[in-house]
Design brief:
- The protein is mainly α and 101 residues long.
- It contains three helices and no strands.
- Helix 1 runs antiparallel to helix 2 and helix 1 runs parallel beside helix 3.
Length: 101
């Protein structure tokens, strides 16, 4: 396996780890992995990919994008849950305020 292929596999693995952390609602861990992945992506694409590896790289990037789509869905669900919780807290504050007035 070439160095580029190993780097790509590490990027895919990091992406899968991010998704697993998000599924477990370990968002801080997922964000830390994303920061590491972003740096690795920057380094990976700092040099052109040789033509002979372009199909492999395209397939790897498509897989990473698919994983990112799943991450975004989980993030949107989490955002909705947090918004609902905040709305509930706001309603609770209003109820307390009305009761104590």
């Amino acid at each position: 396996m070439t160095e580029k292929a190993q780097e790509l596999q590490q990027l895919i693995s990091l992406s899968q780890d991010m998704l697993e952390k998000a599924r477990k609602e370990l968002w801080d861990d997922a964000i830390a992995l994303e920061e590491e992945r972003r740096e690795r992506l920057r380094r990976f694409f700092s040099e052109p990919v040789q033509d002979e590896y372009s199909e492999t790289v395209v397939a790897g990037i498509e897989l990473i994008l698919s994983i990112d789509g799943n991450l975004m869905e989980l993030g949107a669900l989490r955002k909705f849950d947090l918004a609902q919780a905040l709305q509930g807290m706001d309603q609770g504050k209003k109820a307390v305020k009305a009761y104590t007035s």
